[in-house]
């Protein structure tokens, strides 16, 4: 026998509830948790002297539990005559001060200001089943009646799932009243064996009746942790916080089963001391059944953006190498300090067991894995705000036991390093024996301009080998400056190349010059301008350039084409670039998309404008570097001349090593997988 309604609209029907309680009998029915889970919230806001109205009481045991624990001035109402008679008969002897009355909560007969508190466990959710006009009218009538019957300073406590439409109407009504609103997450323990367990978390909304006070901002608070109450700037911020808590609850339910092979689940863990998430976790399941069930992998600080830890493919590779059925990859977020691995284990051990696979023994000892014992270090350098990309930070990170890097990161997309450079510490004197290792960043560093942070930049350098010669003057337009790693590298290795760098964001130019040692000179000029207009203006002025490099990312994370923005690869602009290039000129395009179809469409478009094209797909990235020339494929200097390219690359390699002894750039190796487009 199915005791759940066949249609959600039945929840608001008195006839449904009459049938429900006749079939259910005298067995208490607890929709949203039982008294032990609600106890601390109820007794926090209701005292024994209070007169309390329980609306839609049903045959729940909540009122009798409250009565037996000191809250005895209880008035219970319900629209079902059957359940009211059942409850009266059950409690009239042992709980004589508790009353039961059949009454419609939308039209109550109690005098104004009669109750100190009103408790609603699931009744709002039962009534507010849709946003149809009649439903909203009924709910508004209920809110108005409860507001009327509450005393000043009285509290309306609602136990609810807070679905979107419920919270929308609830918050709108009481925000218009100007009453303080506080939301608690009810810590209920779900029964994994119960197939009918709720798929949503339960919340307690506490609303306090106050006199209207014009120009007084509404008090809006949320309790994500029992020991802390956070006050928000406005009710509009509640929705995102509620969604975060709902998401975490649903994720835990998902993780009670094995994840599909192509699905990885991410979530964040907060501490009570900060609003910034302390840990970011990604759960990866193996498609195979493995004897080792569960492990935690701690990513050292500063390495969270590497391919192995930041991409689905990389994490799956990590999981396969570790050999565990389920691996939780944990990133240590900036803005927090982490003492050592043992402290992290102690902090996470209790929480991560909530993410264990279903066949993991409850008392199993969970291994914590990492790369050695080095947790890495972060040192904040600068922060600011860009009009184009929002707030940013510049930070130095120390990884791999002492390697130091400087990074620019935009906070709206913290998983992506916008630009990076390797730093070299300037040592004054040798450390004396017994002297302690430094705790902070080195006092003085220099930028290693022979280091390029990405394989795609190495490929861009290698692409210059398609030009007739690098021993004569070469003119280049670079759209997208970043931290200036590429032009700084070219300055030292290939002094015959003149670069006009175009960057839309003035803040990026400022960061590049101040923190990444970009040094404009007669061979390197920087323009704060729109790259599209800059190229068009050069063509309109009759100018030509030997190379155009497009390395500009999209500011919209929701689009399939991450780099470049779509306007840079439409037919009109590609044709404009072709007009700008000299007869033996070259377009180099950094193309990034997780959608293979979108990437292929861009490649086809480029090839329709440029007869000779080649692509280089980078193994551990979503980037492809595209090389395009207006030369015919049959020309001796075309992109398909592998013999000539191999010789040029060896010569370039020699020049690079002469300029930068410890450079990480290998142009010969990077071009081994070059594909010429037919």
UniProtKB/TrEMBL annotation:
One Pfam assignment: Methyltransf_11
Domain Methyltransferase type, first and last residues per copy: 53-158
Single GO MF descriptor: methyltransferase activity
Signal peptide range in chain numbering: none
GO biological process, one term: methylation
Keywords recorded for this protein, A-Z: Methyltransferase, Multifunctional enzyme, Transferase
Protein family: Belongs to the methyltransferase superfamily.
Name recorded for this polypeptide: Methyltransferase-like protein 13
Source organism of this protein record: Elysia marginata
């Amino acid at each position: 026998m199915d005791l759940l309604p066949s249609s959600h609209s039945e929840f608001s029907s008195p006839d449904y509830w009459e049938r429900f309680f006749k079939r259910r009998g005298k067995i208490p029915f607890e929709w949203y948790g039982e008294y032990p889970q609600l106890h601390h919230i109820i007794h926090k806001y209701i005292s024994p002297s209070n007169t309390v109205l329980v609306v839609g009481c049903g045959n729940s045991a909540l009122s009798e539990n409250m009565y037996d624990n000191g809250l005895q001035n209880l008035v219970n109402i319900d629209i079902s005559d059957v359940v009211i008679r059942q409850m009266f008969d059950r409690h009239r002897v042992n709980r004589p001060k508790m009353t039961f009355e059949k009454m419609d909560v939308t039209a109550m007969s109690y005098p104004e200001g009669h109750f100190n508190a009103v408790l609603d466990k699931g009744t709002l959710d039962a009534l507010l089943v849709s946003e149809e006009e009649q439903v909203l009218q009924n709910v508004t009538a209920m809110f108005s009646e409860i507001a009327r019957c509450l005393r000043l300073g009285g509290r309306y406590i609602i136990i609810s799932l807070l679905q979107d439409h419920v919270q929308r109407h609830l918050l709108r009504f009481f925000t218009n009243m100007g009453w303080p609103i506080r939301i608690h997450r009810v810590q209920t323990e779900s029964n994994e064996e119960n197939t009918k367990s709720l798929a949503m978390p339960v919340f307690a909304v506490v609303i306090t009746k106050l006199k209207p006070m014009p120009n007084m901002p509404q008090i809006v608070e949320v309790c994500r942790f029992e020991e802390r109450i956070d006050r928000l700037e406005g009710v509009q911020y509640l929705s995102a916080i509620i969604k975060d808590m709902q998401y975490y609850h649903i994720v835990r339910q998902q993780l009670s089963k094995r994840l599909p092979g192509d699905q990885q689940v991410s979530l964040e863990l907060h501490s009570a001391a900060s609003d910034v998430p302390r840990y970011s976790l990604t759960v990866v399941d193996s498609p195979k059944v493995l004897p080792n069930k569960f492990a935690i992998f701690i990513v050292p600080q500063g390495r969270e953006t590497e391919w192995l830890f930041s991409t689905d493919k990389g994490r799956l590779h990590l999981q396969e190498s570790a050999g565990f059925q389920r691996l939780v990859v944990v990133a240590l977020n900036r803005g927090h300090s982490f003492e050592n691995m043992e402290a992290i284990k102690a902090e996470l051990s209790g929480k991560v067991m909530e993410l264990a696979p279903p066949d993991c023994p409850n008392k199993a000892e969970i291994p914590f894995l990492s790369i050695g014992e080095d947790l890495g270090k972060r040192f904040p350098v600068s922060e600011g705000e860009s009009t184009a990309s929002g707030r940013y930070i510049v930070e130095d990170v120390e990884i791999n036991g002492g390697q130091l890097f400087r990074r620019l990161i935009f906070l709206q997309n913290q998983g992506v390093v916008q630009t990076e450079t390797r730093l070299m510490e300037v040592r004054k004197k040798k450390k004396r024996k017994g002297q302690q290792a430094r705790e902070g960043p080195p006092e003085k560093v220099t930028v290693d301009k022979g280091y390029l942070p990405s394989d795609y930049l190495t490929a861009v350098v290698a692409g210059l080998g398609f030009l007739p010669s690098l021993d004569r003057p070469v003119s280049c337009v670079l759209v997208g400056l970043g931290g200036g790693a590429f032009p700084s590298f070219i300055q030292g290795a290939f002094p015959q190349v003149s670069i006009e760098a175009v960057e839309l964001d003035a803040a990026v130019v400022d960061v590049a010059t101040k923190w990444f040692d970009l040094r404009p000179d007669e061979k390197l000029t920087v323009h704060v301008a729109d790259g599209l207009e800059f190229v068009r203006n050069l063509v309109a002025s009759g100018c030509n350039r030997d190379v155009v490099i497009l390395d500009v990312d999209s500011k919209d994370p929701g689009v399939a084409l991450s780099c470049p923005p779509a306007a840079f690869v439409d037919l009109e602009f590609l044709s404009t670039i072709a007009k700008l290039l000299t007869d033996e000129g070259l377009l180099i395009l950094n193309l990034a998309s997780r959608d293979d179809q979108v990437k292929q469409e861009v490649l086809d478009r480029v090839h329709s404008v440029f007869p000779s094209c080649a692509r280089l797909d980078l193994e551990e990235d979503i980037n492809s570097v595209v090389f395009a020339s207006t030369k015919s494929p049959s020309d001796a200097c075309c992109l398909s001349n592998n013999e000539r390219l191999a010789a040029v690359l060896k010569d370039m390699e020699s020049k690079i090593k002469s300029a930068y002894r410890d450079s990480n750039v290998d142009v010969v190796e990077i071009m081994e997988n070059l594909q010429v487009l037919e």
